Each structure stands twice: as structure tokens, then as C-alpha cells.
């Protein structure tokens, strides 16, 4: 057991085993943990085998507890000595099996983090009426039905599970942040009344026709990426960051004043229906955006960063080099804004910069050749027009002479 607490501050880590970072000495062989009366606010216990009621005394002041578990069998009986606990985070080793039945009686928690704890059911938390923040990501959860009583919940992360629907979340009307990414969800309709949502991560699911998003009038962050069969219609006016990678964009989203837009791998041929003047950052890689969209991009006066690898338009990116926009291509390095003109610049330049400079110069040469051809064609047209004009003048003069 812990021998003694000496000169410890309000934030402290206790561990079985000696370490220069800890001010706590323990007996060997991983003996049970005991606490003497001390004014702790945050406590982290590492390599804990068990937490029996008899192991804990006078932990009244602790409000935040992190448990790093190492035992293959762990019980939480001793947790009830932390009578003012409002935040609990449990980190387990892969081999640790946890029974959460004891936690179902611990109803004063405001924050509970149980990610990657091999959880299959959430029935143990149906009485957590005070819970504000819940993270149960990276588990094996198949249903969220037991969350429906958590009506004060504001932040929920239930991503990386086995959910096929969101039934049970419709009563969590205080939710501000919701993460349901990497599940098997097909519809978001049960969420239609969650009108306080500001952040929604629903990427990598099996969503189809999506219209309920328009109900979330306070939404500022939305990720619907990797829902390959989804038909997305959006009307939200407050979204600042929008991610629609690898989706089908079925409607005009240029009326949404986003500042950051991700539409990689969306089979896009044009940008007119997706961009607007507020854009600061645009990701359009792996599409079929051509030179026809150059003028659209040049009109984006506030655009600071453009990611456009694997598009025909990158052959003409030098035409954007006069803009203030940083252009990123396949290696996520900004395209050079200026041509290298001095030996010193050449010596200090990296290889990838020089390669881009060569591409830039080649592209400019091609442009000059094309401009020369266009100019010659235009000159020929002018000569033809002048010849035609001269012929008309001559004919007019002949007609005038005949009339006289």
C-alpha cells in the first residue's frame, strides 16, 4: 500500500513502482492502493490491479480520476469512496476484461471516457442522468438505445463501433457535439430534433439520402465523407468547415458560406456549384477539374490554400501563381510562387522545388507557344478582315463613280 503522501500538489500521479517523476513510494509486489487524507483534485492511478472498498479511504476531494488498468480482472467497488467524483477515464490494456455493473450506481458523473474498453452494451449507464460528456468510441457497441435517458448529454463520441442505427439518441436534445463515424448507420432521420448540434461527424457509414442535416441550424462543422451512396442536400448557413470527400454531391452547395471545404474524390468536373467567396481553404484532389475552372478559382479572393493533386488543372497552376493562394500538389508542398532567377536561389533550393520550377517554366513555354499560334491565327483573321474591308471600300467607290 502507499506508505505516505509527502508535499504533494493538487494535481498528482500515483503509481505502483519507483519512478523519478513520482513523489510516492509503494511497497513491492503491486500491493493494494490506500489513500490517506489529502486534498487532491485530480488523480491518476497506473498499473492498478484492483480497487476494493477497503483499499480507499478519505478521497473526498478528488473530482477527476484516471485509471490505467493492468489486471485481467478488475472491480470498481472502491470507487464509491470518491464521493465527489465528476470525471472518470478508464484506460485498459488489451487483455483486461472489465465488468461495468458497479459503475451503474455511480450517477454523479459529468464526464465518462471508456474508449477501447471492449464494451458491447451500454445498459450500465442508463441511470447517468447528470452525464454531460460521454466517450465510448472504439468498442463493439451495436445499439445506442440505453443512451435515450441521458437528456443532459452535450458531447457524445460513439464512433468506431458496430451501430446500424441511431435509435436512442433522439431524446438527447442538448447535444452540441456528436461523433458517430465509422459505424454502419444508414439514416440520420431519428436525429431531426437535435437542433443544438454544432459539430457532427458522420463519416464512413452507409448513409443514403440525407436531408435531415438542414434541421441543424447551429451546425458549424460537418463531416459526411466516405458515404459513397449518399445523396446530400444542404441548406445550413452557419457551417464553417465541410467535409464531403468520396460522396455524391447532388445539389448546389455554393450558397453555404463555408471557410474550409473538402471535396476530394467526388468525381467533380467543375467548381461552379460548390465554391463561394468565403472560402479560405479548398481540397479538390482526385477529381476531374480542368482548365475551365481557372477563372472560378481566380475569383476566390480570400482563398489561402488550394489542394488540387490528381486533377487536369494542375498543368495550368502556374496561371494561379500570381494569386496569394498557396497551391499544394501531390507531395503536399506549396507550388512555387516565383521563378528562380539567381545562382544563390538555385543553390539554396530543394530538389522538389527545382522540379516544380522546371514544370512551371515548361508550362509557361507551352503557353507562349500556344499564345503565338493564337496570335498568328488572330493576325490572319485581321488580314482577312482588312482585305474584305478594302474590297468593300473599292466596290463602294466603283458604285459612286457609276452614279456620277
From TrEMBL:
It holds the Pfam family LRR_4. Residues 351-395 form a coiled coil. Keywords: Coiled coil, Leucine-rich repeat, Repeat. SMART domains: LRR_SD22 (SM00365). This is Leucine-rich repeat domain-containing protein.
Amino acid at each position: 500500500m502507499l506508505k505516505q503522501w509527502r508535499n504533494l500538489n493538487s494535481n498528482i500521479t500515483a503509481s505502483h513502482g519507483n519512478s523519478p517523476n513520482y513523489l510516492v513510494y509503494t511497497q513491492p509486489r503491486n500491493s493494494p492502493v490506500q489513500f490517506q487524507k489529502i486534498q487532491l483534485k485530480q488523480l491518476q492511478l497506473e498499473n492498478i490491479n484492483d480497487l476494493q472498498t477497503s483499499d480507499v479511504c478519505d478521497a473526498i476531494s478528488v473530482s477527476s480520476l484516471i485509471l490505467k488498468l493492468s489486471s485481467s480482472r478488475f472491480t470498481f467497488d472502491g470507487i464509491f469512496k470518491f464521493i465527489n467524483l465528476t470525471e472518470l477515464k478508464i484506460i485498459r490494456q488489451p487483455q483486461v476484461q472489465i465488468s461495468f455493473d458497479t459503475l451503474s450506481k455511480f450517477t454523479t458523473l459529468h464526464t465518462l471516457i471508456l474508449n477501447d474498453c471492449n464494451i458491447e452494451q451500454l445498459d450500465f449507464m442508463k441511470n447517468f442522468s447528470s452525464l454531460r460528456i460521454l466517450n465510448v468510441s472504439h468498442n463493439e457497441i451495436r445499439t445506442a438505445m440505453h443512451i435515450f435517458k441521458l437528456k443532459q448529454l452535450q458531447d457524445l463520441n460513439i464512433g468506431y463501433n458496430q451501430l446500424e442505427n441511431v435509435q436512442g439518441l433522439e431524446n438527447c436534445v442538448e447535444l452540441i457535439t456528436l461523433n458517430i463515424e465509422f459505424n454502419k448507420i444508414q439514416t440520420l432521420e431519428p436525429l431531426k430534433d437535435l437542433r443544438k448540434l454544432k459539430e457532427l461527424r458522420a463519416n464512413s457509414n452507409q448513409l443514403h439520402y440525407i436531408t435531415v442535416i438542414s434541421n441543424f441550424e447551429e451546425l458549424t462543422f460537418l463531416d459526411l465523407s466516405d458515404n459513397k451512396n449518399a445523396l446530400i442536400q444542404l441548406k445550413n448557413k452557419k457551417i464553417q468547415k465541410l467535409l464531403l470527400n468520396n460522396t455524391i454531391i447532388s445539389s448546389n452547395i455554393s450558397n453555404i458560406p463555408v471557410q474550409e471545404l473538402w471535396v476530394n474524390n467526388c468525381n467533380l468536373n467543375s467548381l461552379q456549384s460548390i465554391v463561394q467567396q468565403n472560402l479560405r481553404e479548398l481540397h479538390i484532389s482526385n477529381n476531374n477539374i480542368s482548365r475551365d475552372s481557372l477563372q472560378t478559382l481566380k475569383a476566390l479572393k480570400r482563398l489561402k490554400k488550394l489542394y488540387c493533386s490528381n486533377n487536369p488543372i494542375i498543368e495550368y497552376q502556374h496561371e494561379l501563381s500570381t494569386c496569394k493562394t498557396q497551391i499544394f500538389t501531390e507531395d503536399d508542398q506549396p507550388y512555387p510562387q516565383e521563378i528562380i532567377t539567381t545562382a544563390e536561389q538555385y543553390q539554396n533550393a530543394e530538389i522538389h522545388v527545382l522540379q516544380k520550377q522546371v514544370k512551371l517554366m515548361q508550362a509557361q513555354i507551352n503557353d507562349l507557344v500556344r499564345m503565338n499560334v493564337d496570335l498568328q491565327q488572330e493576325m490572319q483573321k485581321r488580314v482577312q478582315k482588312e482585305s474584305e474591308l478594302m474590297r468593300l471600300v473599292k466596290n463602294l467607290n466603283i458604285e459612286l463613280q457609276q452614279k456620277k
